[in-house]
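Methods — Computational structure assignment.
A single polypeptide chain was analysed. Its primary sequence is given first, followed by the predicted tertiary structure written as structure tokens.
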Amino acid sequence: MGVLVKRWAMALGLGLMLMAGTAQAEYPERPVEVIVPWPPGDLEDVVARLISDQIQKDFGVPSAVVNMKGGGGVIGANHVAQARPDGYTVGMFTGNILTAHIIKKRAPFGRDAFEPLGIIINYPMGLWARGNLPFSDLAGLAAHAKKNPVKLGHFGFNGPPTRQTLLAAKRLGFKFAGNAAYDETNCTLLASGDADVIVSTVKLIKPCLDSGEAKGLAAYTANRISILPNLATLDEQVPGIATPAWAGLFVRAQVPADVRKKIAASAVKALNSKRVKDIEANTGAVIGWTDGKAAVRFVDEQYKRVEALLAK
């Protein structure tokens, strides 16, 4: 009996040592995935890849971006919400995921599911039209749409940019002949005739702006887009309904503070690179880093703004 007890005690001691070793393991010791809930190619995807590469350089572990599109961003975000709170699954989320989807109860997670590591991107979002259409601002769109069918393409019905567009149309006295949501709104959507005007970012639409196949109607930004200084903002044309588009880096709530700090440090390094400066210069985006309590306040403020917008 004494021998069995002794063996049991030794086994228990070894188990506790192994558990202690696991608990004290340095983060990260295995691959880190960055979930982008949209197709590849737009700003949040490009910036997420820079951050993922920096994590790999800093810590010597594999890191990769996983594009998990669908549901207006909800599918990818829910993957992060269901992951263990250990920092190995990080989300690059656009603002609608943390605001409109929750407000409209279209998400299986709540406001307390995530913590912001940092707010990163202020999108140069806007409303764009096929280049051969006979209008170049919102007043012209309204006059044309009152006599001709105009189809709208957008990222999602409850996203703030879409709601702003529909509210602007209402204020200007017209309705779109049809509108549909797409995972990506780009030049192809205009060229195919599936949409006459689209809500999109400068990065996705720039190739056909350069070729003349598309033109801007309104910038959905607080100030005019730096590389499109002649494009009037939505607020200049239809005051009082503008809500900025943004994106940030998030993890599940309860990820340890030291782990959040390490991911954030890699993100800040990536955002200080020349590549990011080039992206800003080419797209008009404002890319930076707002973290901690300021990031929490920003998300709370945006939630209230979108809540008010969706109530209109």
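Note: The domain at 30-123+245-310 is CATH 3.40.190.150 (D-Maltodextrin-Binding Protein; domain 2).
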